[in-house]
Amino acid sequence: MKKMMLLVLAFNSFIFSAYAQKSDSEIERKEVFKNKEIVFYQIDERTWVGNGNMMFNESMYIIEGDELAVVIDNGTKIANLDKIIASITPKNIMMVATHVHPDHTGNARSFPEVYINPADSINIPYSMPNFKGKLKYLTDGQIIDLGARQLEVVFTPAHTPGSTTFIDKASGFGFSGDSFGSGNLLLFGGTFSQLIASCEKISAIMEGNEVEFLFPGHYHGNNPETQVRLKDLITLSKDVLSGKVKGEIDPGNSFGLPLFVSDYGVKVNYNEESLK
User: Fold this and answer.
1) Which residue of 92, 181, 186, 235 is most buried, as measured by CB atoms within 10 A?
2) Residue 28, class by beta-carbon neighbours within 10 Å (0-12 exposed, 13-18 middle, 19+ buried)?
3) Residue range 32-80, pLDDT digits in tens
4) Percent of the chain, pLDDT > 70?
């Protein structure tokens, strides 16, 4: 437990060396709110992204339906976040987390209840120590009905045991948190085999439902994650497991993940446990 606590505390000071996946045209964004801690952009008529500035654009999303707005993640440290969200959407809020890490659940105490994947409960004492509200649990395959809009809950473990992706099939995009790394994936308590399974699972959903990309947990306007990214992660993971690619020592020894592999524009940090 002490080791886990040190890893999570260190997470607050980590600077991501993320790879920016270039595309022919960046997704258009209109600024709707800004202060010294966060800026919110409008993605489309009923979808917004908020970028914090403490952990390499730690990102949260507002997805609005006719009856409900789902907020995915809540950043690191943002004063009056609940009031900021209320200034953007008048709908009642359902707060969900892609995973329980301090740059995604750092403001959980501002909300009366938070929905998480139960497998990430292990991280609650360290990442949500001041949360006094009610924890509720998501289920794999669950459909969240927002009113004329739906999100599908898909469990995608590897980054953490309870990492989760949310898919908006009708809109053609999803929200993956750090499940696929935003270009720099850290395998905390997960394995390459789990990563392969999660990538294959989401890739099949994307292909079968014309979902073009996923908004990641550290979004900076030009790095949505595509099926190409998922397939590259599958290839790299299989190369590591087969021994074709050998991990190098990371001199920074990020959070007890001393090894890394880097190819196809992505970097994966891991330890020996990840090879099981």
Assistant:
1) 181
2) exposed
3) 999 999 999 999 999 999 999 999 899 999 999 999 999 999 999 999 9
4) 89
Nearest alpha carbon to residue 49 among 75, 22, 79: 75
Domains detected in the chain: 2-275 (3.60.15.10)
Phi, psi values for residue 158, rounded to 5°: 160, -60
Taking each continuous run of H as one helix and of E as one strand, the counts in the chain are 5, 17
Band the pLDDT of 27: cuts 50, 70, 90.
low
Q: What is the DSSP letter of 259?
A: E
Closest listed residue to residue 101, CA positions, set 34, 180, 4, 225: 4
Compute the half-sphere exposure of residue 122: CA atoms within 13 Å on the CB side of its CA.
14
> Mind listing the pLDDT tens digit for each residue in 66-118?
999 999 999 999 999 999 999 999 999 999 999 999 999 999 999 999 999 99
CB 183 within 8 A of CB 265: yes
Structural tokens at position 271 = 């330890």
d(CA 63, CA 229): 24
Beta-ladder partners of 174: 167, 214
Query: How far apart are alpha carbons 74 and 61 in whole angstroms?
Result: 8
CB 184 within 8 A of CB 267: yes
Instruction: Give the distance from CA 100 to its chain's centroid.
Output: 10
